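User: Fold both of these, please.

Assistant: Here is the first one.
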Amino acid sequence: AYTPTITAGTGTFTTVSATGKYYIFGKTCILNMIVDITAAGTATGFMSATLPFTSAGRIQIGGYGMEVNVTGSMLKGYIPASSTALQVTTYTNATTIGSGFSNILTVVYEIA
């Protein structure tokens, strides 16, 4: 288990919490993450969540999920090269940040 740190592309959250569990198979990390946004505050844009391990040196599309409380939007996660964070948006590149949103993600990526 681990607790991801959640930040926004712009602004800050008033109240956000996250939990995660991961499994390691060789150099592959598989993790499940739940991010609950109680109060979005001034947060907008993409949501960023820290990973338990730095990704390998290549750009990766690593996560897929759904916002389950408000919009039902499908989510995608992008891991920049050699990063320790996952950037999350919807498939239409809209924000996945809003008060009352609950984002559930599954992420698979190669660790460094």
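And the second sequence with its predicted structure:
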Amino acid sequence: YQRVPGVISTSVGYCGGIGDNPTYEQVSRGNTMHAEAVEIVYDEKVVSARTLIDLLWQIHDPTTLNRQGGDRGTQYRSHVWYTTDAQRAAFEASKAAYEATMSSFSGAIVTKLDSAADAPYWKAEDYHQQYLQKDGQDATKGSLKPIQCYGRRGPIKKMDKLGVTTSEYGTMKSY
């Protein structure tokens, strides 16, 4: 998300669990019920909530319950926390549009949607922030260079197929 024009900042952290200020070690054990999350601050005059949600469907698998790639557990669930009614509506419209394009073999979207007011966001430790730069990958705004995940062990995300466009909206938490 940090590459998307209109995104002002991103941070990774934890959301939707029990207990205050959890650590990576606590969350990774699955005991706190927090999800690993991304907080996105964006300029609604440049990029819309709908565009950001449309991108979400392209960069992860929204049909796997409590799993992303080889990572398993509730901390890897697909979950979006909205901060405005407009974001909630954008999510619902985007989800319906994406579901209409899915084949019957894809599985159902299991991504949950809840108000951020009910789920405090806790910023993760500094060593988790700004993954692309720390890994030597291109984090330039608008870059479409592929992203290699998980310390170059995981899948390559091809950004040129994502169709990021511009529009309107605010701040949301995702995953």
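Residues 164-175 have pLDDT under 50 and may be disordered.
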